[in-house]
Amino acid sequence: ENIFDRSRMAPKTPIKNEPVDLSKQKGCTPERNPITPVKLTDRPQPDPWTPTANLKILVSAASPDMRDREKKKELFRPIENSEQSDTPDSLQYDMVDDSTVDEFEKQRPSRKQKSLGLLCQKFLARYPSYPLSTEKTTISLDEVASILGVERRRIYDIVNVLESLHLVSRVAKNQYCWHGRHNLRQTLKTLQEAGELQYGELMTFFQHKEQDLEYKFGERKKETIPDTQDKPLLDFSEPDCTSASANSRKDKSLRIMSQKFVMLFLVSKTKIVTLDIAAKILIEETQDTVDHSKFKTKVRRLYDIANVLTSLGLIKKVHVTEERGRKPAFKWIGPVELPGKTVEPRGNNPASDPLPRTQRGVCAPYQICATGKQRFTRHASFNGSQPCEGTRRKVSSEPNSPHQERQDEYCSKMINLAAVCRQKIEEDTRSPSTTLPLSLLPVPGDSDFCVNPLPQAVFPMVQADVPNLALLNGVSSQTLHPSMPAASKTENGKPTLLPSQPFLCFPSPSLFMLCSGLQENNLRETLPTTGEVGNRSAEAQAAVPPAACQKRSSHKCTSPSPPVDDEEPAAKKQAMEQSDVPLSLVVPKKPSESPKAESVLGSGCTPAVHLEAFHLDLASPAAPEAADKESTKPLDPQEQEKWSQNKDPDEPSPGEEHISKENANQPFLPQYLYVQPTAGLSSFNFLFSANQAPGAISLAASQLPSLSVPCVVVPSAALASFPVVCSPTVTGPLSPVPDGSFSAATSMNFSVSGLASTAPVFIGTTAVVTPKISPTPSVDPQQPHPALHLSPVLARSCSALKLDSPMCMGHPVTLLKLQQPSSTPLTPKSIRPARHEAFFKTPGSLGDPVAWKKNEGNQIRNASSVQRRLEISGTSPD
DNA sequence: CGATCCCGCCACATT
DNA sequence: AATGTGGCGGGATCG
């Protein structure tokens, strides 16, 4: 600085007066060397310029602007210099180099030089990032504005964003207090948590899309997607909401928008958010109208915010390429690992908590939408609400044409759904009384995530799984972590529909594996990852009993995880590094495509896929890129293959083979009952060992009357559509009924079925084939299958799906490993840090494809169902 | 020509 | 009513 000052200052005075040397300027500009002592030497021209200087002066005198600028320059130069040194922005440098330039600029200040980002940098340069706690710096807007030479209006833009991150807080009119970044992490964490609740699903969803697009993997998506974007607008428009005036506009946009925007990054697996997506999401929240102008405006605002965030070094601009071309996007480059998760960050910040505000703001709309009950009265929430309804309506109205839907619509729907779900969840959580237990839960994540640990107790293992799963699911779930085991829910009361019965209700979308004794050790041996899975499953079994599990999870983490982590993470990382963008692992979601699935609604197939995905995920958090899969994980190539196969309807069989290897029983043997939630928000998967998960689960198969198989009731949360796969127990051939005819009825009660109308259920009877043992895959049909009876709907779905489908089979196999509960489950957290990204990605990627398809196919439905549910709930509980 | 986004009008909020 | 805030979008610039 000194140097600069010297150089500058000395000449400056004179310079000021002088100069505008375009030629010179330009020369300088290009150079932009931040530090240019040399320049001094270069710039020997003070005197000569004098004449010019005079002129200049005149000019400046004439125009206030000029004056301001000069002022600004003077004041800021130092700042700029320092900044420049820090940040390599060419633009800024120019200014630094010579005052002349600046002046010059005055005349014709490039737009860039006046950019909000630059202004923000200057602004930030004035204050220490980490001020001493003792001293509080107050910021006078007027002062700053004048110093920086800008209208106050611009300062508001900056301050609002900073305030959203708690870097500053407003103390009085025109007065802000500078806090610095001390609490930034905490704030981010809070935002992340809030974001997960609010946007987890959405982001996942979107990201998948993006990823898919970006990576070829996603061909499928492309298929579906293409149309979507074209038309942005659509029907959403909800007229009425517009008058937001009602609520104070105050906590409306910029601030909130900024927080939301940040949340998107924090929730995003890829840490990359495209502007258009962000705009869409944000628009939804507030007002749904998606008209073009609105979108444009939103984008403009986002640019404003992005500029400030960029200046803060939290994000950087990037481009994502997708089919349509490249889209502007921003990548989060700020801290990713937030402080340990605590519950709610409440308060570190002295001043007001922005968060609260934010949360409120965010939540409000949802809440409103979902139910009449509004906690927070104020805000645009209303606007939001309306939109929601509108959207909802639409959703419901539009049964399914996911493919056709436009992105926008789709997105909005998604958003709405999410909101609804969220709400529901919240409500549920809060009020046990809620009658709709099953339907909503899906979102459990919230509770878990945020603060409620309840679930953990119940199924520790689950939790471990969950994270992964959640990720996988993508859409639904990041948030879900939740492991929230049925139990927990039950506790709450929500989920437990049938307390007395032997059913388990799982609120969250997680994968559960219940195994009674299976012996498939080999697998484990073979595949480490698998082992993990197995462990998990085992745990799950064990876990079932609430208490026990918890600890396990921790243990699990230890043993199994370590290896995994290392491997996976590394791989992932590498992958990541190579390409910033995470690969969409899952690309293959084609399952939905499979005819069967479609017939069923897509859900059927998907589930299988999911499982695989899950497995993969579990096994290796690392993203399952094609390449990665193999190398990365030893896991199980087979699985992967299966997976891929599954994905690809085309080659179902091959996958089976692999599977078979793993487990002899694939086809129908499924000893597990696996329920997968589809894409929807709420998805949860279950793996059940058909055989009996007896004790552990609490559901004794025995309990189930006709079926010896344990039943699991899955509340489909919002989505309702989740396929359930049951492998009937094994007792063998109790009933000769062929698989195909599930109809035989066992008396399984799937109360659930009712709930989730759409959800397909698969029931595989099983022979008791241990994986190893069962030599024949094809067996199922032959083997006696215990008859299960499902609700008609379910039955149908089942039939449609066909147990046979390799997909289904495959999964089970994989799962089997479980038995060993020994290993402690990986704790999400423990794992997380290391592969944080990986997890997300993996899941996401996996989830994506599936989600996508599902979404496309099912989602709508789900949505509709959900909505329906909600409505119902509103009116009358189930 | 699309991506950016400056600029400042003007509505709403606060004093 | 004056002044503070800040939504908003036209249209200039940039790439």
Automatic annotation (TrEMBL):
Residues 65-77, 639-661 have a biased composition (Basic and acidic residues). It is found in: Nucleus. GO terms for molecular function: DNA-binding transcription factor activity, RNA polymerase II-specific; RNA polymerase II cis-regulatory region sequence-specific DNA binding. Residues 81-90, 857-878 have a biased composition (Polar residues). GO terms for cellular component: RNA polymerase II transcription regulator complex. InterPro entries: E2F, E2F_WHTH_DNA-bd_dom, WH-like_DNA-bd_sf, WH_DNA-bd_sf. Residues 538-548 have a biased composition (Low complexity). One of its GO terms (biological process) is sprouting angiogenesis. Its main location: nucleus. Belongs to the E2F/DP family. Keywords: Activator, Cell cycle, DNA-binding, Nucleus, Repressor, Transcription, Transcription regulation. Residues 1-93, 380-407, 528-602, 622-661, 845-878 are annotated as: Disordered. This is Transcription factor E2F7. It comes from Glareola pratincola (Collared pratincole). Transmembrane segments: none annotated. It comes from the Eukaryota. Pfam families: WHD_E2F_TDP (PF02319). Coiled coil: none annotated. Residues 111-180, 249-334 form the E2F/DP family winged-helix DNA-binding domain.
